[in-house]
Specification:
alpha/beta, about 230 residues, Ribose5P_isomerase_typA_subgr, 2 domains, Rossmann fold, 6 helices, 6-stranded mixed β-sheet, 13 strands, Ribose-5-phosphate isomerase A, Ribose5P_isomerase_type_A, NagB/RpiA_transferase-like, single chain, Alpha-Beta Plaits, ribose-5-phosphate isomerase activity
């Protein structure tokens, strides 16, 4: 059923796209449904140009006939549409379950607006049940990990950090980085955590997306609702 809800949210967001838009295109299962919905509109004559947030999205969008470019060619975008692993009432997000958080954040930051598409299971009162991805450079991994654990301890958060993919074959992002997933359960001060994590040498970025989303379409048993940040 959640796949049907994701599809409903994705198709609702596709209705907001108008000809001439410069569009950031997200990554993940819900974003892929949006790509299919967008491609159908493009086939009907919609004129847009997109910047994909991952190689996976680039391949899919290109195969479906969506015209693509890069942020170097088009550094200002009108709208990004992307999924989320968690969202709260302020439209603070956890993203990065698919490993594309850095490019997703760069693209969202270059956009005038960001619409989040999700099924209702992604709505939470407080962020943190979904593990927070922290993207790190491979060099000095143990030192970076220790610094992250120190921040978590200082903030009274659980010190649970897992290297995605494991030590034998770590997951590599499109940028060639590793991801440490922090199992925190409840993030009561996401702003402070975000600032402290990104200040650590070796941390590239993290999956806390704060003050980036301007609207969300969330689908559930009652249909698709529009969520604006409180």
């Amino acid at each position: 059923m959640s796949d049907q809800f994701k599809k409903q949210a994705a198709e609702r967001a596709a209705e907001d796209v108008t000809s001439g838009m410069r569009l950031g295109i997200g990554t993940g299962s819900t974003a892929e449904l949006f790509v299919h919905a967008l491609a159908r509109r493009v086939a009907d004559g919609l004129n847009v140009i997109g910047v994909p947030t991952s190689e996976r999205t680039r391949e899919l969008a290109s195969s479906l006939g969506i015209r693509l470019t890069t942020l170097d060619e088009l550094p200002e975008l009108d709208l990004t549409i992307d999924g989320a692993d968690e969202l709260d009432a302020h439209l603070a997000l956890i993203k990065g379950g698919g490993g594309a958080l850095l490019r997703e954040k760069i693209v969202a930051g270059a956009s005038a607006e960001m619409i989040v598409i999700a099924d209702s299971s992604k709505e939470v009162a407080t962020l943190g049940k979904f593990p927070l991805p922290i993207e790190v450079v491979p060099f000095g991994l143990k030192a970076t990990r220790r610094a992250i654990l120190h921040v978590l301890e200082d903030m009274g958060l659980p010190q649970n950090l897992d290297l995605r993919g494991g030590a034998e074959q770590p997951f590599l992002t499109d940028g060639g980085h590793y991801i440490l997933d922090a199992c925190l359960q409840e993030i009561t001060d996401p702003g402070t955590l975000a600032d402290r994590l990104v200040a650590i040498p070796g941390v590239v970025d993290h999956g806390l997306f704060l003050e980036l989303a301007t609207k969300a379409y969330v689908a559930g048993t009652d249909g698709v609702k529009t969520v604006l940040p409180i």
